[in-house]
Design brief:
CATH topology of the largest domain: 2,3-Dihydroxybiphenyl 1,2-Dioxygenase, domain 1
Strand content: 25-35%
CATH class of the largest domain: Alpha Beta
CATH superfamily of the largest domain: 2,3-Dihydroxybiphenyl 1,2-Dioxygenase, domain 1
Strand order of the largest sheet: 1-4-3-2
Radius of gyration: 20 Å
Helix content: 10-25%
Distance between the termini: 17 Å
Largest sheet: 4 strands, mixed
Amino acid sequence: MTGNPVEDLPVEVIGIDHLYIAVSDMARAEIFYDKVFAMLGFRKNTFCLNDEAHVQYYNRHFGYVLRPARSTQAHDSYAPGLHHFCFRVDTAAEVERLARHLNACGIEASPARHYPDYAPDYVATFFTDPDGIRLEITNYREERRQRHDHWDDLPGAGSEPCCTDEEGR
């Protein structure tokens, strides 16, 4: 640490820790997400926070928490806020298998399909939770693998932070 805030940055984000989703009906959402997260290998626990029941689904990488909504306003994926949440699995074959299994479990998911406009090897299925939150499952694409494995060799490595101190430095 140099004491200079610009030189002491950036700090690398190493993952998503958790995501909170407010739901209109905890019991209905829990039934839906129990099915989805069982397919994705997540574990589950429950806890109370400020006298409100919460349900947490988690794997070794992050947690996805359901909490009771405090408003009855419907989710609009095109209003400011969350548009959709995408889960990544390893292969396109896993996406295809999950799309079939979601439908077999009563969750209306699109057939797994190739989306070359997104990326040459992009395969995804889409579905919606009971409150209208759009969810997606996609494969771990080559571009993402290369980005992960060769991060320090990519353009932009070592770029300066965007902000300056009060004196314009």
